[in-house]
Amino acid sequence: MPITCLSWRLINYEPIVLAVTSKLTSSNDLAQKTLEYLRLLKIKIFFIQSVDYYEKMTGMLSRLFIGLLDDNEITDECLLFQTDSDLLPINKNFYQKIDKSDSIKLLDVSSFQSPIGKFKYKNKDYEMFYMCHIGMTKRQWRKIMNLENSNYKFDGKSILRLVEEFYDSSKLRINDQIARGDDVWFMDQSILSVKIANYLKQNKHNRMHIKLSQGIKLDRIWSDKKWLDTFNNKFESINDVHLFHENYIQKLNFLNLLLKRMFSIDQKSILEKYINEFMIIKNSTF
Question: Is residue 266 part of a domain?
């Protein structure tokens, strides 16, 4: 998370972190270490109180509620982009040369065309949009998610209520019932895609502005050879980096290459210190 946040600052976007908190997270040393460095870097953090054992679902869906952020610096006209914690932006021009109108903005940073296919909701077909880079004003986030004049709050109870109202209670899953790629994994994208479609249907003056990427996603799924070849020989064509997940310990040397290429000496030193302290905790825990 600290690495992702600093990478957004490099392209002149100020990062915002939504952090889920509960009795379980307060005892998580890895989470506390990450929060320590986010504070050191003066990253703005908003805490979301979760219902116990629903921390994962709360974290996955909390970004749908960013229109309710209570902060004087984040005005209703501020452009708020969604992103994933494992995506590092690289190409400053791609992220800054965006449509300036009052539109919903979708930046396609993959090698695929957008939208990414259709899905059904209540027997109707909808186009699925990537959640990783959708932006609009804070005011529009509230309108699209129907949060204005509602009794929704920026907390875990409201997030679970949204799931029940949009689907039903059968879609509520505790932490260990959620697996990567299951029907809950893309729930935020599905909900937002339906909300956007309904909003655009009712507001003909607005539109979805899609900026397709001609650049490269440096992706974790690639072989080591392809990853290194792209990094060394095509770095200027890279739009973003999709960081490693389960095998990140084996890929720390690749991560170090990114840190060296992207950040200043002082920034790199802070991030390396964070990684080392994080790994000490992880190795002592597992």
Answer: no
